[in-house]
Design a protein that fits this description.
Jelly Rolls, 285 residues, binds 2-oxoglutaric acid, 4-stranded antiparallel beta sheet, alpha+beta, 22% strand, single chain
Length: 285
């Protein structure tokens, strides 16, 4: 459960950090499950429906970049997504009626872990309101050096930053980001960060010898309905389900207008989109 002071911090700053949210046994169980899921996977031979590999490694390299949808694919993570421990905390931020949205595990392996560029999560999946939280659980000690999360506080109530070029969605902020406002969020394994889905965030590549594995789950108020934006809306809604409270009879609309992500091409993930955006492949021409 979160304290009122922690919930207030989230509402004011757009994020709140809670050390020791996970026990060391929970962290160990998650890591063991991830090892078993990743075992035997290589860049040349892996289940592309379940995981994404780091691209810059030899064909027999075994560095996984992301495990897709752990809470949809593996019972251990599903039980956690439905646990009172977690839902009580989410309820303290979003209220009693809650929809589970999606999950992922970013592996950020030692030496090669890909960067994540500045973005706001709601740029990827516009909703009728902003009542959406992204929850990051550090499963390793996360430091500035191995690519802990960085956030820009108190930016979640403003308009969405631009994520487009030539009208096409780039999956990263395309206007200047004032990095002097960025706050690194280091934490030991077991720490959780509750981050408002409008909070700009990023993380650098991991060039250290220490991995920075992070489990990420997203929930939203049940009255935050997805704004239909084509095929990608289906993809991001596959696992959405009511996990607490009542299914609402009304959508709550918050912003008069909100940018819709228009993709030039189909993408595999945020990493794929941001890499192709850097090469200029996702703009017109
Ligand atoms: O893993 C990180 O550092 C950030 C994750 C993130 O923003 C994402 O996967 O959308």
């Amino acid at each position: 459960m979160l304290t009122p002071a922690q919930a207030d911090h989230y509402k004011t700053e757009g994020y709140v950090v809670v050390p020791d949210f996970l026990s060391s046994d929970q962290v160990a169980a998650f890591l063991a499950e991830m090892d078993s899921v990743s075992a035997g996977s290589t860049l040349a031979d892996h289940d592309a429906a379940r995981m994404e590999m780091e691209p810059n490694q030899p064909p027999d390299g075994n560095q996984v970049r992301r495990l897709y949808e752990p809470c949809g694919n593996y019972p251990l993570f599903r039980e956690f997504a439905d646990s009172e421990q977690l839902l009580d905390a989410v309820e303290a931020l979003l209220g009693p009626d809650l929809v589970y949205h999606y999950s992922k595990i970013n592996m950020k392996p030692a030496g090669v872990g890909s960067p994540v560029e500045w973005h706001q999560d709601l740029s990827y999946y516009p909703l009728t309101n902003r009542g959406s939280v992204s929850i990051l659980f550090y499963l390793d000690d996360a430091t500035v050096e191995n690519g802990c999360l960085q956030v820009i506080p108190r930016r979640h109530r403003d308009d969405l930053l631009s994520h487009s070029t030539d009208g096409f969605f780039q999956g990263r902020v395309t206007e200047d980001v004032d990095e002097s406002l960025a706050v690194p969020v280091p934490g030991d394994a077991g720490t959780v960060i509750f981050m408002h889905a409008m909070t700009p965030h990023a993380s650098i590549a991991n060039t250290t010898e220490h991995p920075r594995r992070t489990l990420i789950l997203s929930y939203r108020r049940a009255d935050a309905f997805p704004v239909y934006a084509g095929e990608m809306t289906h993809k991001t809604e596959i696992h959405a389900r009511l996990v607490r409270g009542q299914f609402p009879q009304k959508a709550f609309f918050e912003d008069k207008t909100f940018p819709i992500p228009l993709y030039k091409d189909a993408i595999v993930s945020l990493y794929d989109l941001q890499e192709r955006s850097r090469k200029g492949e996702m703009a017109a021409g």
